[in-house]
Design brief:
Length: 62
């Protein structure tokens, strides 16, 4: 999509995608990242999702 940044996340060991749903979004273009083997989908509000993940990590670390 013109003007959108390109992130080479396909080279990452693990990618966490935070999204409200699997809908293709405004452009209507499906995102192959959603089905990639290295992707984990976390459904929900972005801010709350990150806050929840940080809390879980802090709880695990101590």
């Amino acid at each position: 999509i013109a003007g959108m940044p390109i992130l080479d996340v396909d080279y990452s060991k693990t990618v966490i995608v935070i999204k409200r749903s699997l809908s293709p979004g405004f452009a209507g273009i499906p995102n192959p990242l959603f089905a990639a083997d290295n992707s984990l989908m976390f459904f929900g509000d972005g801010k709350k999702a990150v806050e929840d993940m940080v809390k879980c990590l802090k709880d695990e670390i101590g």
